[in-house]
């Protein structure tokens, strides 16, 4: 395929939906700054432009290149995760990012994609029937556990759980027997009391206040409570753009990042919240469509992995601000202010679009062209 | 591609499962959103409003207190406060150093400011200095560009233009103490001041006014974003007193640094024109925050500058009490005014000797001469004949032995002893000698200066039940100008005119006949001549041994052991208008220490009365309709010469 042909094959619908969601994000960042394009909206837009171009560029890259270099990408991400231990900057009591000149890089965000690629490659290359045999699952389990443990050490419980969930989805999609998941969940439950021992006090506190946020309205439960007040007071149609009293009077914490959904729901009400969920669902539909249209297992796993990671972001963030799950510090995809998150999401969509462009490509086990098609 | 097909089958089946799971989760999110935003919306809306809106109380302006002529004696003054808003001042040390170039600011002040700043949020103004004067305000205003975050705030403080002169009468205001906090929300305001004593305390509720409300929108840190609504409070009521401030000040200054109380009241209306107590304290110092040194000085002064002696000081009335004994004896029909006693300087009762103040004795004295010369022996005889219960009861008719009910905190009742009282309270039987001692106003007998003034007024008005008062109530009531005809006093006390006449002639002689004890302090002006009675009350018992050695003169004794000097009287004698009482603690003799003060204050009171009267008459012809003009003229006359002495600003 030529470049022009490839561009023609691009799933423009998805590109438009992604741009639409990002635009909602710009509007919310404009509102978060009390009706000012600075400091957030302007910078977010400046990042989105190049990132969108990069996304389209990545979509044109032959997905076999990802397959061939899967382990290199994975090892690179792992190296970054290790590096963050030594040179990482601490934020909110955890080491999370590396400062690379003007860019703050969050290795855990990179790792999410790298894990999807490496697991997709592994399951793609497995011989027939191997996926049901336990010994073939040891290696991918290790591939998943290593970054999860490193992230947990930072400590960033939310991202660790997310990595495991992404891995879980890929295992499941690859055809791993259901009882294996039962066993894993059982082991996980046993591990909870052990993990509790290793948690930092702020993490324990977050989980405890999650269970009863109103017990400590001025302390740790304050964020959740104020978020619920903001959401609830928005009502059906909201208080209007730029009129969210909770957000604009700063009762709402981190309104430009993790709690931006709350501000949206305060200003645009249930209608706005559901509307955004619908846009996100549209992205999911595109993701499934692309995954099911792909001819190679690698492409399918890659597409569904990216889609599921995206879904996890959406779900965890929104469930968190509504007080359904603990506050874990996951941004709302495409809307929350933040560089790495935005860029990595668009990289992910680049891969997803790439699967679509190369949906009919036959992919050999190790990425070499497997015969003429 | 069998393998691929099988993989695809598994993949698509499982993709459907995962998609279904995601759908369920998305539905859960929607459901939760519906629950929060529709079902619970009302509750959260209320919570959001509570978050956002803060009610602030606005302190009302405290009511102004005027004297009888409309002179402000307790007012409100703008207090210019220098504050700094820390978040607007990038370098607080530098800012303070610059401020110190314009106004005095020592290291302690700077430390205090920085300490307060550390404890408060950045946008809360922190006070650097209170009570800036005009020059300081101007200096700061001019240099504002160099002083980031420094502002001048205007508050209100209480101002007593006459300072010490009316300190006890007016009291003072201070911060609300823990025990004074009630449900009233105004009291929670940190800058709110309430009356702590005197009129300020007695009429605190009236003076306070009603607080206003301001609804402000605040953000999460408590910073005010904007004001949503504002309802101004209602200032406190104005209060008008019967006091003539210029006279009060004259009396206070006349007393000098002695420990004394001077009370002047109208014998017909009971309006108190002066209620001075000295020494006093500076009430302005109390609301600015009193210094430790000044407080210790006040507390350590044996002349009790914090006590209002006029109503709280209880003294043995001494010879000023003799009129009561005379009246009791006459009214009981036991003796006539011609009753005479031979005074040889003492009288014997049982094994005790009771002395007259005059060592050699007065010789043969009748009632008139006994009052005129204050013969103790005569009144020993009269007291013995009349009995303590009878003359204590007579004294109570004249206002002694019970609080006069002037409406100020701390009024004391004094004490008029009876036989039953002693048995009940002390648990001993009344002794015959105690009757003699009580008959010359000593022993258990106690009275406050205000009570003595009331007694003098009731004698002066011919035996009518006048009650003292300092409030011109209800509001709007105009003072009875001294010259204007006044309504008659209250109910008659039921004393026969004959008896009253005897006593009043006796009192006239005290001041106006050469043998009278107050002759040297008489008022020479014929139309103002005063009738009175001196009193000297012992603070301690003189032992027999001391008397043999010869009584040590007052001046040679320590201050605390000297006699109290008293004087009661009324004037003009032929048509009494004003009554006066003067008590000088440890002042020595009544004729020497108290009578001259009484004369001077009375002359001033009568002079001012005539002055105001003529001022009112002069204007009354042309501009009676112009009440302001009249009031202004009265005020000018009241201030003596028209200089507006307290309104310098």
Features:
heterodimer; A: 373 residues; 15 helices; globular; B: alpha+beta; Penicillin-binding protein 2a (Domain 2); 2 domains; 5-stranded antiparallel β-sheet; elongated; disordered C terminus
Concise structural overview:
The complex is a heterodimer of chains A (373) and B (649). Chain A has 15 helices and three strands.
> What top-tier CATH class of the largest domain in chain B fits best?
Alpha Beta
Query: CATH topology of the largest domain in chain B, anyone?
Result: Beta-lactamase
The description of the largest β-sheet of chain A is: 3 strands, antiparallel
- Helix-strand category of chain B: alpha+beta
Work out the strand percent of chain B: 15-25%
* Distance N to C terminus of chain A: 13 Å
Mean pLDDT of chain B: 85
Distance between the termini of chain B: 105 Å
Return the string of H and E elements of chain A. HHHHHEEEHHHHHHHHHH
Mean pLDDT of chain A: 86
The outline of chain B comes out as elongated
- Report the CATH superfamily of the largest domain in chain B: DD-peptidase/beta-lactamase superfamily
The parts of chain B where pLDDT drops under 50 for at least 5 residues are 479-487, 620-631, 640-649
Principal-axis shape of chain A equals globular
Number of domains of chain B: 2
Helix content of chain A: 55-70%
Report the helical percentage of chain B. Answer: 40-55%
The two chains with the largest interface, and their residue counts, are: A-B, 44 and 39 residues
> Biggest β-sheet of chain B: count, sense, barrel?
5 strands, mixed
């Amino acid at each position: 395929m030529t470049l022009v042909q490839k561009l023609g094959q691009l799933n423009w619908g998805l590109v438009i939906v992604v741009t639409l969601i990002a635009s909602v994000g710009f509007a919310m960042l404009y509102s978060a700054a009390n009706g000012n394009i600075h400091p957030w909206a302007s910078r977010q837009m400046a990042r989105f432009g190049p990132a969108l171009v990069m996304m389209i560029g990545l979509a044109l890259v032959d997905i076999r290149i990802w397959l061939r270099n899967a382990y290199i990408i994975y090892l690179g991400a792992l190296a970054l995760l290790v590096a963050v231990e030594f040179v990482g900057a601490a934020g909110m009591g955890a080491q999370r990012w590396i400062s690379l000149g003007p860019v703050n890089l969050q290795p855990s965000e990179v790792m999410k994609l790298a894990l999807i690629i490496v697991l997709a490659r592994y399951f793609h290359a497995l011989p027939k029937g191997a996926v049901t045999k336990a010994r073939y699952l040891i290696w991918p389990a290790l591939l998943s556990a290593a970054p999860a443990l490193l992230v947990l050490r930072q400590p960033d419980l939310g991202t660790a759980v997310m990595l495991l969930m992404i891995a879980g989805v890929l295992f499941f999609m690859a055809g791993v027997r259901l009882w294996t998941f039962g066993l894993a969940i059982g082991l996980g439950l046993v591990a909870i009391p052990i993990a509790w021992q290793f948690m930092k006090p702020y993490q324990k506190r977050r989980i405890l206040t999650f269970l009863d946020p109103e017990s400590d309205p001025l302390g740790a439960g304050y964020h959740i409570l104020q978020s619920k007040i903001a959401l609830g007071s928005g009502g059906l149609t909201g208080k209007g753009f730029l009129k969210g009293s909770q957000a604009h009077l700063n009762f709402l914490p981190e309104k430009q990042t993790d709690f931006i959904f709350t501000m949206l729901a305060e200003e645009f009400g249930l209608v706005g919240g559901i509307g955004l969920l619908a846009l996100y669902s549209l992205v999911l539909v595109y993701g499934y469509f692309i995954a099911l249209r792909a001819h190679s297992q690698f492409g399918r796993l890659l597409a569904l992995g990216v889609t599921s990671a995206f879904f996890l972001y959406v779900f965890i963030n929104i469930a968190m601000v509504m007080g359904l799950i603990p506050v874990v510090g996951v941004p709302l995809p495409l809307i929350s202010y933040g560089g790495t998150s935005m860029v990595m999401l668009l990289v992910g969509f680049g891969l997803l679009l790439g699967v679509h462009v190369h949906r009919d490509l036959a992919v050999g086990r190790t990425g070499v062209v497997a015969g003429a098609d | 591609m069998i393998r691929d097909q099988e993989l695809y089958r598994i993949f698509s089946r499982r993709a459907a499962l995962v998609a279904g799971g995601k759908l369920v989760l998305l539905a859960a999110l929607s459901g939760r959103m519906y629950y929060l935003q529709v079902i619970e919306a009302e509750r959260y809306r209320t919570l959001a409003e509570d978050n956002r809106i803060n009610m602030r109380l606005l302190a009302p302006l405290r009511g102004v207190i005027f004297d009888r002529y409309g002179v402000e004696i307790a007012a409100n003054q703008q207090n210019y406060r220098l504050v700094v808003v820390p978040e607007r001042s990038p370098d607080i040390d530098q800012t303070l150093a610059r401020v110190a170039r314009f106004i005095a600011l020592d290291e302690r002040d700077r430390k205090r400011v920085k300490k307060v700043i550390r404890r408060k949020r950045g946008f809360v103004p922190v006070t650097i200095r209170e009570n800036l004067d005009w020059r300081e305000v101007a200096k700061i205003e001019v240099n504002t560009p160099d002083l980031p975050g420094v502002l001048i705030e205007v508050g209100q403080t209480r101002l007593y233009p006459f300072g010490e002169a009316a300190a006890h009468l007016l009291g003072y205001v201070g911060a609300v103490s823990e025990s004074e906090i009630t449900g009233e929300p105004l009291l929670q305001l940190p800058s709110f001041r309430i009356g702590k004593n005197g009129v300020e305390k007695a009429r605190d509720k009236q003076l306070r006014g009603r607080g206003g409300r301001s609804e402000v929108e605040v953000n999460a840190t408590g910073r005010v974003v904007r004001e949503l609504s504002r309802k101004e409070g209602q200032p406190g009521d104005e209060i008008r007193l019967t006091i003539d401030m210029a006279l009060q000040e004259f009396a206070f200054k006349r007393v000098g640094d002695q420990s004394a109380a001077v009370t002047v009241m109208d014998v017909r209306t009971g309006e108190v024109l002066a209620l001075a107590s000295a020494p006093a304290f500076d009430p302005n110092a109390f609301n600015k925050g009193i210094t430790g040194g000044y407080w210790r000085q006040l507390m350590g002064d044996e002349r009790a500058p914090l006590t209002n002696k006029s109503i709280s000081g209880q003294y043995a009335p001494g010879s000023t009490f003799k009129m009561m004994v005379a009246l009791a004896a006459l009214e009981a029909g036991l003796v006539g005014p011609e009753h005479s006693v031979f005074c040889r300087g003492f009288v014997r009762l049982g094994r005790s000797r009771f002395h007259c103040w005059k060592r050699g004795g007065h010789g043969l004295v009748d009632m008139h001469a006994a009052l005129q010369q204050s013969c103790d022996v005569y009144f020993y005889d009269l007291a013995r004949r009349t009995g303590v219960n009878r003359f204590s009861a007579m004294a109570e008719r004249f206002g002694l032995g019970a609080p006069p009910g002037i409406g100020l905190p701390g009024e004391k009742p004094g004490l008029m002893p009876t036989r039953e009282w002693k048995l009940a309270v002390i648990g001993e039987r009344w002794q015959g000698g105690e009757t003699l001692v009580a008959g010359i106003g000593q022993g258990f007998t106690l009275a406050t200066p205000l009570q003595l003034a009331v007694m003098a007024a009731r004698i002066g008005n011919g035996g009518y039940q006048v009650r003292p008062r300092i409030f011109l109530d209800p509001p709007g009531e105009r003072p009875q100008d001294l010259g204007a005809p006044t309504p008659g006093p209250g109910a008659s006390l039921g004393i026969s005119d004959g008896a009253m006449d005897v006593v009043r002639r006796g009192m006239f002689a005290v001041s106006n006949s050469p043998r009278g004890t107050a002759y040297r302090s008489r008022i020479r002006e014929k139309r103002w001549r005063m009738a009175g009675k001196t009193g000297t009350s012992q603070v301690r018992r003189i032992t027999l041994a001391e008397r043999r050695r010869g009584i040590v003169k007052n001046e040679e004794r320590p201050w605390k052991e000297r006699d109290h000097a008293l004087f009661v009287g009324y004037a003009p004698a032929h048509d009494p208008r004003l009554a006066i009482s003067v008590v000088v603690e440890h002042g020595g003799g009544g004729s020497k220490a108290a009578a001259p003060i009484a004369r001077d204050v009375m002359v001033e009171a009568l002079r001012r009365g005539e002055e105001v009267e003529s001022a009112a008459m002069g204007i009354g012809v042309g501009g009676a309709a112009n009440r302001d003009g009249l009031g202004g003229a009265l005020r000018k006359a009241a201030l003596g010469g028209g200089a507006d002495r307290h309104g310098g600003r």
